[in-house]
Write a structure and sequence with these properties.
The complex is a heterodimer of chains A (222) and B (600). Chain A has seven helices and no strands. Chain A is mainly alpha-helical and 222 residues long. Chain A has a domain of 136 residues: Four Helix Bundle (Hemerythrin (Met), subunit A). Chain A starts with a helix and ends with a helix. Chain B contains 15 helices and two strands. By secondary structure, chain B is mainly alpha-helical. In chain B, 61% of the residues lie in helices and 1% in strands. In chain B, strand 1 and strand 2 form a beta hairpin. The chains are: A mainly alpha (222), B mainly alpha (600). Chains A and B meet through helix 1, helix 2 and helix 5 of A and helix 1, helix 6, helix 7, helix 8 and helix 9 of B.
């Protein structure tokens, strides 16, 4: 590995040859995004751990897999998942269209991605409404608290992404074909990441009690 | 043109047009207020941190007044005492030390030391400062709301932190948690910048192992901050939910003031795990930059290459890694599986190995060095002794069986103040005396500096040495008053009064430092480009203080490591990093001996 090699050099010895070029190979924004994704991954990872710990306490009622569970009907969540996946696919298409200099296709795909993302957020809001309508408030039981907290936080991260998406989209409308915007690819990568986060959260929140218990055991919190 | 080509041209750091550079601002507002220049942001961060640190210093003196002379100050009642304890701790750890090391030193030094024109994301850097300032304002608002700031202790343990009986549960705790969440956003923005700049914007020839140890310390500390602060974020958000929305993440079923509360089933210990998963790496977030700064100060002022440079880097990385697997040593008394206690005691004691390597290497760097007892050097040497003392008591407390009787006594207070209060602040003072000439172009006054050093150094020992003894006597920490405890001898009160007097003297002495900072900025002796005869890049800038873009027309090229001091056969006792290997130092165009007054 590059870093390990670097840690093995002997900087105090004179270097006869002119110094190597040590400058950027990967664009700074790409590295910045990678670091940000690592931070967000740690953040959600810790929330997941907190859920697993909390789920071991006697008052936990699973959201799925038991009679009368709050998330017994997962169909709306599957619809939302499809919307988020479509948004991700559209951004990937925008990224590849932008790289090939196809301005019209880039714009179309970007607009589609934004619409699907907004539809996902609206869909999550609708699920919240259903929750409230059926009497599962944020403080009703701990699993419901986690449901609101985790979906809300994920939605906020997507909303933050939409700010970046908005800037990239505005740029796409102004851009000329010969200057592809690396921001589109970065947006796409962020979207894929949030899709994966959502899939993990979706799986976790709809897990039956047995699965949660097994996960907790693996994590050493049971 | 391919995507990769575009990306390359965007980030070519050697043409002077890399991602971090931006147009030079001209109006007052864009130059000094909404500045995107890392040097200005560093000063903004530093001044804000020092200002808020002064508040925390005053709070600590008020606490000491109560402890040394109980009841002498009429407005300190038990509630306000707890509020002072809490705010003092939180401000010092987060808003002063973390902000000053990363936002202050990190911002100023990283681009200059690695040879970049600015941070790679200047706009984000500016945003980071303003979000930090917002966090400070929200925190300070706690002093002006009904009920005052929270008095939960800086660890904010639930359930007491959000229940009536603890001061500031109306507004204070909400402001505290909100402020922390905002601070984490700011720290993440900053951290992204520091890490990416070190990875991406180094000058030609600046390999990772040619970076000065200051940059290594700040770099690894930034990674720790990025990975540890999310744990505080998680615990803060969940506690806000418990407080404001009535959830039961951390809140068990509880009877408060004779009433059964709505909460049930939550786990207070879960909060403790999350908090300390942040809280322990936090110790190293402030220690690693201090290690780096001290290494550079010692090497420069002893005119010797740092002993075991590579070992020093590895030790920083190893300490950073280990800091994530020791957190539960803060929780021995919370109750845990004995095997867990064994595990955490072992990992805790293992940290002593890389730490001891660092201490030995500092000593061996000093060994037979050409030691100049400048003010920065005094602070650096004081750091070593203070850190060793604080570290050794850490070995006591890392063992479960020793920790349990000493837990929550003044021994713990003495330990953590020596190791992560006084030590980092000595490194900060040393760093300020060392780099102030680069920041302002003028030297800090040496006599005032020495007064400041000796009073602070001896004063802190007068404060914290007796506390170890009080801890052995069993004097509990976090108590407002100590009347009616049979096991505490009356003489302990005399010692407490002595500590208070010392604390007041040290507190007042910081005014000397502040005066020196302000006075020397205008009246100090002109410093020249490189007053200490240092090798690192920040001393080789064409202008002092460095102008916008740092390096004029051409970026520096690095030809050697940062520690070529007293090289045999060299004309002077240092060779800057940008002097080519083939050229003898005296012929180097930018190394004019006349520019260097200190060591003729």
């Amino acid at each position: 590995m590059n870093l390990l090699n670097a840690l093995g050099t002997r900087p105090w010895l004179p270097e006869p040859a002119p110094p190597l070029r040590t400058g950027a190979v990967v664009p700074a924004a790409t590295i910045g995004l990678r670091v940000l994704l690592a931070v967000i991954a740690v953040l959600f990872g810790l929330f997941v751990l907190a859920l697993l710990v909390r789920a071991q306490l006697p008052d936990w009622q699973a959201l799925a897999g038991v009679p009368d569970a709050a998330l017994a009907n997962t169909a709306p969540l599957w619809v939302n998942t499809a919307l988020l996946a479509l948004s991700s696919v559209a951004l990937q298409a925008a990224s590849s269209a932008s790289r090939r200099g196809r301005t019209a296709a880039t714009r179309l795909a970007l607009a589609g991605a934004g619409l699907f993302a907004l539809a996902f957020l609206a869909g999550q809001g609708w699920v919240w409404q259903q929750f409230v309508a059926r009497g599962h408030f944020v403080a009703s039981h701990p699993a419901a608290s986690f449901f609101y907290l985790l979906t809300g936080l994920h939605g906020l991260h997507l909303a933050g992404g939409l700010i970046a998406w908005g800037r990239v989209t505005i740029r796409a409308w102004r851009a000329t074909p010969d200057s592809p915007d690396p921001g589109v690819a970065l947006c796409a990568r962020y979207w894929h990441f949030l899709l994966v986060v959502w899939l993990v959260l979706f799986a976790l929140l709809t897990s039956p009690p047995g699965t949660i218990a097994t996960l907790a055991e693996w994590c050493g919190v049971r | 043109m391919t995507h990769a080509d575009t990306a390359d041209s965007h980030t070519d750091s050697h043409t002077g047009s890399h991602a971090g550079s931006h147009a030079e601002p001209h109006s007052f507002w864009t130059k000094y207020v909404w500045s995107q220049d890392h040097k200005v942001i560093a000063i903004q961060y530093s001044l804000t941190a020092i200002a808020v640190g002064l508040v925390a210093l005053v709070l600590s003196n008020l606490m000491r007044l109560q402890l040394g002379f109980p009841g002498a100050v009429s407005f300190i009642d038990p509630a306000s005492y707890y509020q002072y304890v809490t705010m003092h701790g939180m401000i010092m750890v987060i808003y002063l030390l973390t902000a000053l090391f990363l936002g202050g030193f990190g911002n100023y030094l990283i681009p200059l030391m690695v040879g970049a024109r600015d941070m790679v994301f200047p706009y984000l850097n500016m945003l980071s400062y303003w979000v930090y300032l917002l966090a400070v304002v929200v925190l300070m608002a706690g002093f002006f709301v009904p009920g005052g700031p929270t008095g939960a202790g800086w660890t904010l343990y639930p359930p007491q932190a959000i229940l009536p009986g603890t001061p500031g549960t109306e507004w204070g705790i909400v402001l505290m948690l909100t402020s922390l969440v905002i601070f984490i956003v700011a720290a993440t923005m900053g951290g992204l910048n520091y890490v990416t700049t070190v990875l991406q914007a180094r000058a030609r020839g600046m390999t990772l192992l040619r970076m000065p140890l200051t940059v290594w310390g700040i770099f690894v500390a930034s990674i720790l901050a990025l990975l540890a602060f999310p744990a505080l974020f998680v615990s803060g958000v969940m506690m806000l939910f418990d407080k404001l929305l009535g959830t039961s993440f951390f809140m068990p079923a509880i009877v408060s003031m004779g009433q059964t509360l709505e909460h049930s089933g939550g786990s207070p210990v879960l909060f403790q795990h999350l908090f300390w998963f942040f809280g322990h790496p936090e110790v190293y977030i402030v220690a690693l930059p201090a290690f780096g700064i001290i290494s550079d100060l010692i090497s420069t002022h002893a005119r010797k290459n740092i002993f075991g440079y590579r070992m020093m880097v590895w030790a920083i990385v190893a300490i950073g890694g280990l800091s994530f697997v020791v957190w539960a040593h803060h929780m021995y008394v919370s109750g845990m599986n004995p095997y867990f206690g064994y595990f955490f005691a072992t990992t805790t004691l293992i940290i002593a190995v890389p730490t001891a390597i660092k201490v030995y290497n500092w000593i061996l760097t000093l060994w037979r060095g050409d030691i100049h007892l400048t003010v920065p050097m005094l602070f650096a040497i004081a750091f070593i002794s203070t850190f060793v003392i604080g570290g050794l008591t850490g070995l006591f407390l890392g063992n479960v069986s020793v920790d349990i009787p000493l837990s929550d006594t003044y021994f713990v207070v003495a330990h953590f103040h020596m190791v992560m209060g006084v030590s980092p602040i000595l490194a900060i003072f040393g760093g300020i005396y060392h780099w102030y000439p680069k920041v302002t172009g003028r030297m800090l006054d040496e006599t005032l500096g020495k007064v400041h050093f000796w009073v602070t150094f001896l004063g802190t020992y007068a404060i914290y040495f007796p506390m170890h003894y009080l801890g052995f006597l069993g004097m509990p920490r976090r108590y407002y008053a100590y009347e009616g405890y049979e096991f505490i001898p009356a003489s302990a009160q005399t010692l407490n009064a002595f500590i208070t007097v010392a604390a007041l003297i040290v507190g007042v002495c910081q005014l000397v430092f502040l005066f020196n900072l302000a006075w020397s900025a205008f009246r100090g002796k002109p410093a020249g480009a490189n007053p200490w005869g240092a090798t690192t890049l920040e001393w080789q800038t064409p202008d002092t203080p460095p102008k916008h873009g740092n390096w004029g027309a051409e970026l520096p090229v690095v030809h050697r490591w940062a520690y070529d001091y007293s090289v045999p056969g060299a004309e002077r006792d240092f060779i800057p990093q940008n002097v080519p290997q083939s050229v003898s130092p005296s012929e180097a165009p930018d190394a004019d001996p006349a520019a260097w007054e200190g060591h003729a």
